[in-house]
Design brief:
Elements: E1 3-4, E2 7-8, H1 16-69, E3 73-77, E4 86-90, E5 96-101, E6 107-111, E7 116-119, E8 124-130, E9 147-154, E10 164-171, E11 181-186, E12 196-203, E13 234-237, E14 244-252, E15 260-273, E16 282-288, E17 293-299, E18 307-312, E19 328-335, E20 345-358
Antiparallel strand pairs: 1-2, 3-4, 4-5, 5-6, 6-7, 8-9, 9-10, 11-20, 12-14, 13-20, 14-19, 15-18, 15-20, 16-17, 16-19
Length: about 375
């Protein structure tokens, strides 16, 4: 020991035992404290994930309630069992809006020709509609809808937060002011060959620029295959390379154009392109006599499974009525891709229809 400025300096160092004890104490402290920080972090993550889901649910419900409450009528809606739901409606100023679930899980909303991403992502979106005469059984007639309900499943955006299912409902206030009648025109309710005719052929161009194309009639013994939704289909197979499959249908209605509020169309079937890398599915079009062009209604996903394509045009109903009598509706269904190589490219039609919504005060002539 030696003294420096009255201070005693110990020349001994820290022993191994002391270092071991110190390290052990530090380890014990960290072991006790760190889980507290992890719990705080996990709690914050779960809280933020929950808040994000609540915000998405609130935005979706508020937008649907506000828009549907003021809607004039529903023009198209998905099947009540579909998890990729959509609904299409006409606003008070005559603009047709649509809300649907895109393939990437985002909900799109806006005018049918200008859809924008709205909220998301969602795992599923389902719409179930009812008329004012039966609130126990869903209706599949868009023009008769008075109550719209929906169910959306929101996935968790955090590892500790659970997915949630939100539900909503809205009554169409404007639609209750006038009684409307929906008349369905298809190959079962109309007279095939007279009131409704089908044509099927292949073409190099996907979308023809004339309403009379394709012009090859479907044989009369095939009409029954598209008259009902029974799983039996008319099959159009493309024979030549670089060709699209096209099916055209015309429906003559009895109602006067001035009395028609909505023209809603639907097609059920599937498009299959067996070539590797080619796109499956189909697209539904409606001929716009005012624009002298086909207007796209809906395009299916890239799938060879049966799909339902439905909707109405963005213009007033009278724009989709024409022909010699001024009362003919023209539908076009085309494959999403052309035939490549030797693999088959086919378009199968199970069912197609036109729903004519007759406004209040007009006579409804139907089968």
């Amino acid at each position: 020991m030696r003294c420096v400025k009255d201070r005693v300096i110990d020349r001994r160092g820290t022993t191994l035992v002391e270092l071991t004890v110190a390290v052990a104490i530090v380890a014990v402290v960290f072991a006790a404290v760190m889980p507290l920080f992890a719990a705080i972090r996990n709690s914050a993550d779960a809280r933020w994930a929950g808040l994000e889901m609540v915000q998405n649910a609130r935005v979706l419900n508020e937008q649907l309630c506000r828009s549907l409450a003021a809607a004039k009528r529903i023009t198209a809606v998905s099947d009540d069992t579909s998890d990729d739901g959509y609904i299409q409606f006409e606003t008070a100023n005559g603009v047709v809006h649509r809300c649907d679930l895109a393939e990437d899980g985002w909900v799109r909303f806006g005018p049918v020709d200008d859809l924008k991403e709205f909220v998301g992502p969602l795992d599923s979106l389902r719409f179930v509609c009812y008329d004012d005469d039966d609130m126990d059984h869903p209706t599949d007639l868009p023009g008769a809808v008075r109550l719209v309900t929906w169910e959306a499943r929101l996935p968790s955006s955090g590892s500790l937060a659970r997915a949630r299912t939100v539900r909503g409902a809205c009554c169409l206030r404007a639609a209750t002011h006038e009684k409307e009648v929906v008349v369905t025109c298809d190959f079962g309710t109309r007279t095939p060959g007279k009131d409704c005719v089908a044509f099927a052929d292949q073409a190099e161009s996907q979308i023809p620029d004339q309403s009379a194309v394709p012009a090859l009639p479907v044989e009369s013994d095939q009409w029954a295959l598209i008259a009902l939704r029974d799983g039996k289909s008319h099959v159009l197979s493309v024979g030549d390379d670089s060709q699209f499959a096209q099916v055209r249908m015309t429906f003559a209605i009895d109602q006067e154009p001035a009395d028609v509020g909505v023209i809603a169309v639907a097609w059920i079937g599937r498009g299959r392109n067996a070539q590797a890398g080619a796109m499956d599915g189909a697209t539904l079009y409606l001929w716009n006599y005012g624009a002298s062009a086909y207007e796209r209604i809906q395009t299916s996903a890239d799938t060879e499974e049966e799909v339902t394509l439905a909707g109405s045009g963005a213009s007033p109903a009278a724009k989709y009525l024409g022909g010699a009598t001024g009362k003919t509706v023209v539908l076009l269904i085309v494959s999403n891709d052309r035939k490549w190589g030797t693999e088959e490219n086919m378009l199968c039609t199970d069912y197609a229809k036109v729903d004519v919504t007759v406004t209040g005060g007009a006579a409804a002539f139907g089968p």
